[in-house]
Amino acid sequence: MNIATQDGSRAPSRLSRLVTRHGRIAPALLFLAVFFVLPVSMLFGLSFLDSDGTLTLEHYQRLWDKPVYMKVLGITLKTAAWTTALCILGGYPIAYLLATVAKTTRARLTILVLMPFWTSFLVRTFAWIVLLGRKGAVNTFLLDIGVIEQPIKMIFNFTGVMIGMSHALMPLAVLTMLSVMEGIDANLSKAGSTMGARGGQTFWRVYFPLSVPGIAAGGMLVFITSLGFFITPALLGGARDSMIVQTIIFQIKEILNWGFAGAIGVLLMVAVLIIFFVYDKLLGLSTLSGGEAKRATSLSKNPIGYVGAQVGGMFTRGMGTLFEWIGLAIERIFPRRADKRHADSGRIAIWAVGLLMMAFLALPALFIIPVSFTESGFLGWPPQGFSLKWYQALADTPVWANAALRSFTVAILASSLGMLLGVPAAFMLARSSFSGKGAVFAFLVSPIIIPNIFIAVGLFFLYAKIGLVGTTIGLILGHTVLAIPYVVITVLAVVKGYDQNLDMAAFTLGANRKQTLLRVTLPMIRSGMIAAFMFAFIISFDELTIALFVTGGEVTTLPKQMWDDALLRVSPALAAVATLLLLFMSAFILVSEIIKRRAAKRS
Amino acid sequence: MTNSKSRNTRLGDVSRRAFLGTSVASAALLATPFIKPSWASERKITVRDPGGPFTAGFVQAYYEPFRAETGIEVIGIQGEHEPTGMIKAMIEAGNYTWDGALLSKSSHQSLVNLGYLEPIAPQGGPGPNLSEVPEDLRGEFILGNDVYATLIAYRTDVLGDNGPNSWADFWDIDKVPGARAMRKHPFDTMEQALLADGVAPADLYPLDFDRAFASLDKIKDSIDIWWTGGAQTSQLLNAGEVDLLPTWNGRAQVAVDEGAPVKLVWDGALYTYEGWTILKGTPNADLMREFIEFAAQGKQQALFTPHVAYGPTNPSAFEYIDPERAKVLPTNPAYLPKMVAVDTDFWGAHKDEAAERFEAWLLS
Fold first, then answer.
1. Chain A touched by B15 (CB under 8 Å)
2. Shared-domain flag, residues A326 and A352
3. Burial class (CB in 10 A: 0-12, 13-18, 19+), A246
4. N or C end of chain A, less CB within 10 A?
5. Is A224 in the same domain as A75?
6. Are residues A462 and A372 in the same domain?
7. Which positions ≥6 away from A22 have C-beta within 8 Å?
8. Do B238 and A569 touch (CB under 8 A)?
9. Tens digit of pLDDT for each residue in B114-150?
């Protein structure tokens, strides 16, 4: 069932293998034990105590007695599942397009995909209100041209939640899938065609199965990240769009019933672990090492995986056949002269869908730029007049520049530390086999399953003991906890898609371990590593809960400064901040791409 | 008063703190090199304030003049919206990032119930400034700083002269048509539902939740947006996304100041206050008391009102406030008698139950 053992046999002895293994994963485990398990277990421990400190199950009894908590949990899981489905469906064409265009085009298009990342979630959510509201830009436009007679209700309901959440999380899915797709050998599809498969058949029966690890990893990242969302659903949702994290935060911050908050947290964790278990069996994220469905050949060993593999096989075969029929039908209706032309029309369709999805991702960001030059005190469409006063306001208050600088520093250090700890762990998960691997994987990923507020409160108590409250280093360590899961999942996905025969070839040609790693393996999985770093960076850069708690508000980060400013209203100053960030990050990506190309030319 | 003293010493806190202590003790050993020095010896206090325009107003009204007079430096730090959880953590961990905090009366009540706040008056009793503040706008553990009202704000361009004048009007879809929003929280919403249903302000507390939910049932399907944050309401009002909604007067005022055709309804508005509190056990409690006595002066309170449209608690403040500005402040003597005071003691005991029922009601 596991391929990983076969290649591991290269390593000299069992003992040294054990050492390298623990050397790789131990730092990450130890780090999480101190800065995650210890703080969080405190709150989970409280869930078994009553307000007098005696052992009780009253909090769990309450969860059982009051159906509202199960209902909210159900809504949360439903919201996360739909978000995941939309992100994968919408993100796959983008990723496929990016994976199959020239490298320069890819770099430029990636900037569009990343746009949601650089517009802080507060600004982005308010941008949706201004765009999609009753009096919003889209409804006004549609009413003006006479397409509709009544405004369409696009937000303040479940649709609004889906728009906001899939927009925020789709880049995560795209980049994860892209990093796996980049490792797929284009010759395989060509071979499929040579052997007589048509476009649809080649894609569904050759390319798609190879991209499944990317879908599995991307889907999982989106799912667990969306469980922690509550601001977007609160601002764009309706009466019934409640998220369980909001309930936990309410208990911690307003009711001060930390025991009950802990119990809800345990409920959430148990639910997610069950889903995780089924998902893992189905898609084999923690055990699968190859791209295609090689696992689960036996019904008795892994029934879920077996059924999953069977269903998956039926799906790809079915889709292949379906697309073949569609192709044939189109040929009947529009007889074609040469084979080439057919391929072109498929390509056009992919471009069309891909660009449409990218427009969806870039739209709020592109909308924020003109809004930042408004004379009005609110975000609104169309912008009124032209003024630089919001930029002036930023320039006049050094707090903004300082906050931005601090956020960059914290995010870079936290994501670097996250990479140092997470990458070796991911390599080990991908390449060695040991018992309890699924559990180790679940553990490494759990910091994003547990709501941030638990980590925040727990870390505060820990930091209070060791003098880290109110320090930047404490903040960096806290954000590293969140960075590790993103790094592990993303790197794991690319390492799995990576053909280890390349390493073998390097060994055969006389390269040692280090040379192989630095000159063969890492360059091949480069884009996955960059994606991992970027996820870790943005998670830290946008994080507020831990930042507020562990610093007591003493360390001002950019998100904190934005919340501070948005107390009475969300002013266009925030749009100006978002615009500057957007320009800076996009320029940074373009310039680094140009430098890379120059360097490649010279060598 | 003696009653709250007895609540301060609860056995539960001891064992819970012991539990917290042991669970982090091992980690303490691992990270001892990073000990942060203590600044307690300096004459400096750190207070949590709501941030944004509040900080700007407080610097001018209190922080700067207080330092000029006493040499005590005041650092205003913005915490989160409801910082009670954070304060609980600070006190249980014995780590005073803040010495004091500006808290809503309701948040203060939650902490008083745990015994986590210091009395604001020195041992000899309240000073002369503190005594000028009416007793219903301060307490043993809090000095009211600013009164805020929850009221109906509506778009005059849509509703014209037919705007709502009461909570009953807000409930009356036929009389006052228009897109509505309400707060997704039982606070104030319960009171609004009962007042709309005809309960007299004097009979409001204890709140009859059953009757409140029955009243809410009548309007549930007519609510287009359930809002969750103050900045959201000013945006909705300014953009005309809704025509009428209950919000805090300060948030609606931002839209008015921006030129939006918005009117505030003071009749039947619900009011409560935010005030200065001292964290239990802070080494700077006496400096905080000095600060609070200073901040009770009407002359000083008047200085923050240009920044936020909330009402000063010392009546003498109005001697220093421009009459135009006084029109938008809740403690304006013209408004106060028409408004209904929120009973935070009631909420302190029923918040959890109300929130649970409210959530269940929303989902039903």
1. yes
2. yes
3. buried
4. C
5. yes
6. no
7. none
8. yes
9. 999 999 999 989 999 999 999 999 999 999 999 999 9
How far, in Å, CA of B233 to CA of B220, rounded?
18
Instruction: Average the pLDDT over A358-367 and give the result.
Output: 91
Mean pLDDT, chain B, integer: 89
Domains: count for chain A: 2
* Distance from C-alpha of A302 to C-alpha of A568, rounded to nearest angstrom: 55
Residue A16, pLDDT score: 61
d(CA A194, CA A201): 12
* Closest alpha carbon to A56 in A64, A66, A45, A65: A45
Say what the pLDDT of residue B329 is.
96
Residues paired with residue B227 on neighbouring β-strands, in sequence order: B183
For domain B2-147+273-331, the question of CATH label 1.20.190.50 is answered with no
**Chain B contact set for A130 (CB, 8 A):** 239
> Which of B 177-206 lie inside 8 A of A, CB atoms?
179, 184
A52: closest chain B residue by CA: B12
The CATH H-level superfamily of B148-272+343-363 is Periplasmic binding protein-like II (3.40.190.10)
The answer to whether residues A351 and A267 belong to one domain is yes
Residue of A258, A464, A568 lying closest to B251 (CB–CB): A568
**pLDDT of res. B183:** 97
Domain regions of chain B by residue span: 2-147+273-331, 148-272+343-363
Provide the whole-model pTM.
0.88
What pLDDT score does A299 carry?
65
Is the confidence metric ipTM above 0.90 for this complex?
A: no
Question: Based on the domain organization, do A278 and A131 belong to the same domain?
Answer: yes
Measured CA to CA, the distance from residue A47 to residue A258 in angstroms comes to 7
Q: Are residues A375 and A428 both part of a single domain?
A: no
Look at strands B311-312 and B142-155 and give their pairing: antiparallel
Taking only the tens place, the pLDDT of each residue in B269-317 is: 999 999 999 999 999 999 999 999 999 999 999 999 999 999 999 999 9
Please state which of the ranges A322-336, B131-145, B167-181 shows the lowest mean pLDDT. A322-336
Alpha helices in A297-397 (DSSP H): 303-333, 339-371, 389-396
- The reply to whether residue B240 touches residue A39, judged by beta carbons under 8 angstroms, is no
Residue B16 sits at the chain A interface (C-beta within 8 Å): yes
Q: Which domain, by its residues, includes A226?
A: 54-332+347-382
Least-confidence region, from A372-381, B33-42, B70-79? B33-42
Taking only the tens place, the pLDDT of each residue in A95-126 is 999 999 988 888 889 888 988 888 888 899 99
- What is the bridge-based pairing of β-strands B311-312 and B262-279? unpaired
Instruction: Tell whether the model's pLDDT for residue A245 goes beyond 60.
Output: yes
Closest Cβ–Cβ partner in B11, B92, B362 for A239: B362
- Taking contacts as CB-CB distances below 8 angstroms, the residues of chain A near B356 are 66, 68
3-class secondary structure for chain B? CHHHHHHHCCHHHHHHHHHHHHHHHHHHHHCHHHCCCCCCCCCEEEEEECCCHHHHHHHHHHHHHHHHHHCCEEEEEECCCCCHHHHHHHHHHCCCCCCEEEEEHHHHHHHHHHCCEECCCCCCCCCHHHHHCCHHHEECCEEEEEEEEEEEEEEHHHHHHHCCCCHHHHHCCCCCCCCEEEECCCCCHHHHHHHHCCCCHHHCCCCCHHHHHHHHHHHHHHEEEEECCHHHHHHHHHHCCCCEEEEEHHHHHHHHHCCCCEEEEEEEEEEEEEEEEEECCCCCHHHHHHHHHHHCCHHHHHHHCCCCCCEECCHHHHHHCCHHHHCCCCCCCCCHHHCEECCHHHHHHHHHHHHHHHHHHHHC
| Chain A CB within 8 Å of residue B359 CB | yes
Flag whether residue B98 sits within 8 Å of chain A, measured between CB atoms. yes
Task: Name the maximum alpha-carbon separation found in chain B.
Answer: 69
Residue B38 pLDDT greater than 60, yes or no: no
